[in-house]
Amino acid sequence: MKKYDVIIVGAGAAGVFMSYEMTKLPNRAKVLMIDKGMGLEKRVCPIKLGKTSSCIKCSPCHIMNGYGGAGTLSDGKYNITTQFGGDLHRYVGTEEAMGLMNYVDSVLCDMGGADAKLYSTGNSQLKTIALQNNLHLLDAKVRHLGTDRNMKILGRIFDYTKDRIDTQFGTLVSEVEKLPKGFRITTDKGESYECTDLVLATGRSGSKWISSVCNKMGIEMESNRVDIGVRVELPAEIFKHITDEVYESKIVYKTDKYNDQIRTFCMNPYGEVVSENTNGIVTVNGHSYADPALHTENTNFALLVSNKFTEPFKDSNEYGESIARLSNMLGGGVLLQRFGDLVKGRRSSERRMAKCFTRPTLKATPGDLSLVIPKRQLDNIIEMIYALDKIAPGTANEDTLLYGVEVKFYNSKVEVTENLETKVEGLYALGDGSGVTHSLSQASASGVWVARKLIEKYQ
Ligand SMILES: Cc1cc2nc3c(=O)[nH]c(=O)nc-3n(C[C@H](O)[C@H](O)[C@H](O)COP(=O)(O)OP(=O)(O)OC[C@H]3O[C@@H](n4cnc5c(N)ncnc54)[C@H](O)[C@@H]3O)c2cc1C
Fold this sequence. Notes:
With 459 residues, the chain is an alpha+beta fold. The chain has twelve helices and 22 strands. The chain has helices spanning 13-22, 88-92, 94-113, 125-132, 146-161, 207-217, 236-246, 316-331, 339-343, 350-354, 375-391, 440-458, and strands at residues 2-9, 31-34, 77-80, 118-120, 135-137, 141-144, 166-168, 173-179, 182-187, 192-200, 221-222, 226-235, 251-254, 261-268, 272-278, 281-287, 298-307, 335-338, 365-366, 401-409, 413-414, 427-429. It has an eight-stranded mixed β-sheet with strand order 5-13-14-17-12-20-18-19. Strands 1, 2, 7, 8, 9, 10 and 22 form a seven-stranded mixed β-sheet that branches. It has a three-stranded antiparallel β-sheet with strand order 3-6-4. Helix 1 links the parallel strand 1 and strand 2. The longest helix has 20 residues, at 94-113. The structure holds flavin-adenine dinucleotide. The site of flavin-adenine dinucleotide has 47 residues, from helix 1, strand 3, strand 15, strand 16 and helix 12. Residues 9-15, 34-37, 60, 63-66, 69-71, 74-77, 79, 85, 172-173, 201-206, 209, 266, 274, 276, 285, 287, 431-433, 438-441, 443 line the site of flavin-adenine dinucleotide.
């Protein structure tokens, strides 16, 4: 039985940044990080390899799991803000949260990210223009690393930590047991390890698993929201004046019809749309490369409506999953519809897609999103597209592509202290898996925060 001082379950953004910071631990303290996914070099989606044109539901999914977690093959947009991307500031305070995110940014720069431009909404004219059209641009600084540079940086962080932190890939932690002093974990390979402090950094793909651990340990979890919507793809020229200035614009709009808030999310200039597989359910996402040679002619972004349920139905994620399952049933994966077809109440077909001027970057099944997305959310999406058309004319073009469904699952919020420690002493929950964060910057920052708390303990 191998014994460690600290075991980190999950090598996503939170785990990676925690392991980076843990290299500052006194040498005698031993740390292990375990992930069910693969190391960087083995993380290739079969769609990218050209082995298949649609998601074949690898287990575990290379997009979501492995070193760097869901962030590795992402766009690598690190948003430095407390206005979105999680609630870390509610636990550690706004100043501390901003300090941690700026520290994460400085590490990324040291590891090769300094060439990537830091965009800011501060002093942007866009804010005024948006307001004049009843749209609200949220404040943020964002460093866009791009998928390619992001991978290189992660490779350097791994090299930096590998002599100090033991890492095991392709290993799922199945069981957690509380011992009189510390914890025992068991893996799917039947190995067991013991540790004094156990850190759960299992991200969205570990949502069901972390719930089972919390249930077993009697730790409270509060139901979180689920965001449902579509990924919009259009010619990059339409949003160029916005993306050139601020890169990622988080724009919020309150619809006339339902008074609901709907927002843009994860904007990828010159990017591509991708499918992602969370626990066997295929949804849609997007990313873009830093290298202009890898740019496409399109920009994509999500339009999302938040849904939270309380009584009698509480499981917001189950609601999101059911809608995604419906789209998977009708489309065999991701559905694709032209905006023009949607507003005319007809499905998109191969024949109509053949005449479409906007070329899709993801092979998806032409169909009818109105058979999948509930009317309320769909009405909100259509109203928002017309609202965006006022600041980016052409958004409401009939050839604008809508991929469905995009679902942002937020893990239930694990009850934790300001140190992100649960009521079980020595058991920590951080990153997206804890429901506290839902972005690269905040998940990484939460890893640094817990690492510093543990360094104080082991000093
Ligand atoms: C395609 C895509 C694009 C994105 N783009 C952006 C972006 O540009 N900017 C942004 O801010 N956010 C983006 N996100 C979200 C971002 O990736 C997440 O917010 C971030 O990765 C959360 O980090 P985390 O460490 O908490 O969890 P994750 O990154 O999800 O990592 C969790 C890790 O835990 C492992 N794990 C889970 N359960 C177990 C278990 N039982 N045993 C062992 N290992 C386990 C998983 O394999 C995974 O590697 C994107 C996400 C996707 C999928």
